[in-house]
């Protein structure tokens, strides 16, 4: 079966990366088949590359940041500290 390498540019780090899939699967995906159905052999990371164009490294960074953000949810002191820092110094921290 013929394969195609899809080249893409990460919108976060601006680096080029690629995913190789079968041509018939790529065609099916373009026509509307969901990525997990069109590319069952790809890892979640590679499917995300296809869908969002975000490279594996940045996906890792983004998911890491989301986990960190969850820890701060509901901590009002955190926002107040930033506001105070901004008010007193005009700078972020
Ligand atoms: Zn990236």
Keywords:
93 residues; alpha+beta; two-stranded antiparallel sheet; 5 helices; 2 strands; 56% helix; 15% strand; binds zinc ion
Summarize the structure.
With 93 residues, the protein is α+β, with helices and mostly antiparallel strands. It contains five helices and two strands; from the N terminus they run ββααααα. 56% of the residues lie in helices and 15% in strands.
What does this structure look like?
- The protein is α+β, with helices and mostly antiparallel strands.
- It has one domain.
- The chain is built from five helices and two strands.
- It has helices at 23-30, 35-38, 44-52, 56-72, 76-89, and strands spanning 3-9, 16-22.
- The protein has a two-stranded antiparallel sheet with strand order 1-2.
- It is elongated, with a radius of gyration of 20 Å.
- The relative contact order is 0.12.
- The model is unreliable at 67-73 (pLDDT under 50).
- Zinc ion (ZN) binds next to helix 4.
- Residues 10, 12-13, 15, 54-55, 57-58 line the site of zinc ion.
Along the chain, the helix and strand elements come as EEHHHHH
Strand order of the largest sheet: 1-2
Count of individual beta strands: 2
Low-pLDDT sequence parts:
67-73
Biggest β-sheet description? 2 strands, antiparallel
Terminal CA distance reads 56 Å
Radius of gyration equals 20 Å
Class from helix and strand fractions:
alpha+beta
């Amino acid at each position: 079966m013929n394969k195609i390498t899809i080249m893409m540019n990460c919108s976060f780090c601006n680096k080029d990366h690629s995913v190789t899939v079968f041509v018939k699967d790529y065609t099916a995906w373009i026509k509307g088949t969901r990525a997990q159905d069109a590319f069952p052999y790809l890892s979640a990371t590679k499917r995300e590359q296809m869908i969002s164009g975000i490279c594996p490294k940045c996906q890792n960074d983004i998911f890491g940041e989301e986990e960190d953000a969850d820890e701060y949810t509901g901590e009002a002191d955190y926002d107040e500290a930033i506001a105070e820092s901004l008010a007193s110094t005009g700078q972020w921290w």
